[in-house]
Amino acid sequence: MSDLSIPGVNSKYKTDEMIKAIMDAERIPLNRLEDRKEEYKQQKDAWQVINRTIDRFRDSAKKLYGFQNPFQNLIAGSSQENALTATAGRQAEEATSSVEVIQAASADRFASDSLPNDYHVPEGTYRFRIGDEEVSVKFRGGDLDSFAQAINRRGTGLLAASVVRDTFDTKVMVINSLKTGEENKLLFDDATKALALDMGMLEEPVEDSFSLTPNKTAEPGERQTVDINHALTGKQQLSVTYTVENLPKEAYSPPSPPSGPSLSPPEGLTYEGITIQNSESQVEVPPWQPPPPPPYSESKDIFSIDGNALSPISGEDTEATIVLGRNELSDFPKKLEIDNGGNTNRRITVKKIAITDPEVRGDASPAHAISAASDSIIKIEGIEVRRPDNEIDDVIPGITLHIQAPSDGPVDIHIEPDRETIKNDIIAFVGSYNQLLTRINIMTDTNESIIDEIEYFTDDERKTAQDQLGIFQGDTTFMQLKNRLQQLIITPYKTSADNRLSMLNQIGISTNSSGFGGGVDQKRLRGYLEINEAKLDEVLKSDLLPAIKELFGRDSDGDLVVDSGVGYAMDQYTSYYTQTGGLIATRVSGLNERIDDTDDDIKEMEDDLERKEQQLKVKYGQMESALSTMQENSRALNNLNNSGQ
Predict the structure, then answer these.
(1) Residue 303: is it exposed, middle or buried by C-beta count within 10 angstroms (0-12/13-18/19+)?
(2) Whether 411 contacts 99, CB under 8 Å
(3) Once rounded to an integer, what is the mean pLDDT over residues 464-482?
(4) CA–CA gap between residue 500 and residue 506 (Å, rounded)
(5) What CA–CA distances, in Å, run from 16 to 27, 87, 198?
(6) pLDDT greater than 70 at residue 361
C-alpha cells in the first residue's frame, strides 16, 4: 500500500502511529490468509515429494518384473580375456562354449622408408582402393605432413595417414586402412603406386604365385590325391578351394525272397498199361530274412597334406577355402590327399590350390608392412570360421564374440545369469521402499529423531524434511498407505519353488535381517527393511533363481502377462496414488484451487485495506489541519487581548 503524505501537516499528534496501529489490527485477517496460503503451498510441495518418491519406488518395482527385468540378463565370461571376450544377449542360452582363436582380423598398415624432412609430394590426384570403396585425394603438392592431412580429410572411415619423425633429419609416413579383413586390402592406382615406390612404401614383388585348378572329384567312398610339389618361400600361404555336394539318399528296396530249389518232375511206374505217378518231393525252406541296408557313414575329416590333417569341412552344400599359413606347412608340400571313404552320400571336389604372398598388392608388395589385411579365424567344435572383422555375432546364437588376439588353445566362454545386476536392482528396490516409508514417517510424525536417523540426507533435504515434519499428522491416507505397503512386504507369493521360496525374508530381506540386538531399535519399529547380503548372495547362486524372479513377478494363468508377485503388487497398489487423476493428483488439484481462491481473497482484502488506510490518512489529516487552525485562532485572540490591555 502507498503512504499518503500531506505537506504542511506535522505529526505532533502521532497520527501516523495511530493509523499504523489501526491498520495492523485490520491486517490480522490478511495475515491469517497469507499463513493459510503458505500452509497450502507446503502441503502441495509435500504431496509432490511423495508423488516423486512413489514414482521412484514404482520404477524400482517394475524393473524387477517388467519386460526389461534383470533376471533375463546374461553375462559372458572368458577363460582368456586377453584373447577373446564376449557379450550375451537375452536370446543366448546358459552354456559353456569352446572357441579357439587362430588369428585376429587386421587391416593393411604400411610405412615408408625414412625420408628427408623436405621430401616433396608432387601435385596430382592419388587414388586408394579399400575393398570395393575408393578414396580420391587431390593434392596441390607439398610436404609429407600436408599430404597426410589431405588423406585424412578425404579418407574418413576408410583411410588414415600419419607422419612420425624418426630422427632429427628424417620422417616416416604411415598409411593404414581402417577396415579389417582380407577382402579389404589397400590398393594403389598407377600414380599412387609410383609415389609409394618412390617413398619406399612399396617394392617390386620377389616371389611368384603358384596355382593349380585340378577340379579333382572324390565320389562317395573314393580317395584321390593332387600333386603340389612346390616350394614355399617368405610369407607365402597355401589355400585349398573346394565344394561339398550332398547327394540324395536312395530309398532302400530289399530283394525278393528266394524261390527255393527247382526239382525235376517225379517219375511214375507203368504196369500192364496202368501208370502210377510218384508224389512231388517237398523241400523245407527256412524263413526269409532280407539283408540289412548298406551302412550309411559320414565324415568331415577329408583333407590332409603329406599326412597332416587339415581343418574339418562343413557338412553343408557349400564352396569354401582352407587357408594355411607359412607356419602350418613344410617348405615343400608334395601331395593333397582327399579321403572321402567315410562318406556314403557326399561328393568332394577340389577346384583350386594356390600358393600366394598375402602381402602382395597386384604387381607390388609393401616394403614395410606393419600389419596386413587378414580375416579373423576361429575354431568352434572343430570347424574353422573366418570373418572380416573381430566382432562375430553369427556363430553362437545370442552371443557376440570380441576377438583380441590368438589364444593359447581353446577358450571357454561361460554364459550365466547377471547375478550382480539382479542383486543391485533388488537392493535399489529395498532402498526406494525405505525412502518412501521415511517420507511417510516424516510427514505424519513430529518426532525430530526420525530425521536425525537418516544419514544419507543432504543439508537441503534435511531442511526440507524439517519443514515438512508432521505436516500430515493424523491424515489416514498416509497411514493406510504405510500399512498396506508393510502388509504386501510380508505376504507370501506363489512360486515354482513352493514353500522353499515364497517370501522376501527367505532371500534375506526383512525388518530384522541382521537378528535381534540387546535393545530396542527405533528404525526397525518404523518399518524399514534390512538386507542380509550374505543370505541374498547365497540364494542368488542357488537353483532358486527362477523362483526369485517369480517372487517379484509371475504369470499365474499362462496368458504371458505378469499378474502376481511382490514387485507387481507394489506397483499396482501405488499406481492408485500417482496415476493421472489419482489420489495425489486430486489432492494437488484441490490445493491449487484453494491457493487460487486464497489469492483472490488476499487481493480483495489488500484492496480494502489500502482504501481504508487512505481514508484514515485523509481523515486524520483533516483533523490535524482543523486543530492547527483552532490553535492559530486561539493565538490570534490571545495576541489581540494582550494588545488591548
Answers:
(1) buried
(2) yes
(3) 92
(4) 8
(5) 16, 82, 102
(6) yes
What pTM does this model have?
Answer: 0.71
Q: Are residues 425 and 410 in the same domain?
A: no
Q: pLDDT at residue 6 above 70?
A: no
Residues 92 and 164 in one domain: no
DSSP string, 324-384: E-GGGS-SS--EEEEE-TT-SSEEEEEEEEEEE-TT-BTTBEESSEEE--B-EEEEETTEE
Query: Do 607 and 42 contact (CB within 8 A), yes or no?
Result: no
Shared domain check, 235 and 163 = no
Look-up of cell digits 504369470: 555
Q: What is the DSSP string of 389-438?
A: SSEE-SSSTTEEEEE-S--SS-EEEEEEE-HHHHHHHHHHHHHHHHHHHH
* HSE-CB of 409 using CA atoms within 13 angstroms: 2
pLDDT digits (tens, 9 = 90+) for 382-391: 888 999 999 9
Measure Cα distances from 124 to 131, 134, 163, 559, 637 in Å: 23, 16, 20, 70, 120
Q: Which domain CATH number covers 330?
A: 2.60.120.1310
- Within a 10 A sphere around the Cβ of 51, how many other Cβ atoms? 18
Q: How confident is the model at residue 513 (pLDDT cuts 50, 70, 90)?
A: low
The predicted pLDDT at position 283 comes to: 66
* pLDDT for res 382: 80
Cell of 638: 490571545
Lowest mean pLDDT among 177-186, 252-261, 483-492, 572-581: 252-261
Q: Distance between terminal CA atoms of the chain?
A: 54
Cell numbers of 208, please?
611368384
2 vs 118, more confident: 118
DSSP at 76: E
Q: Which residue type is seen at 177?
A: S
Same structural domain, 224 and 95: no
Q: Which domain holds residue 88?
A: 74-100+385-416
Are residues 457 and 544 located together in one domain of the fold?
A: yes
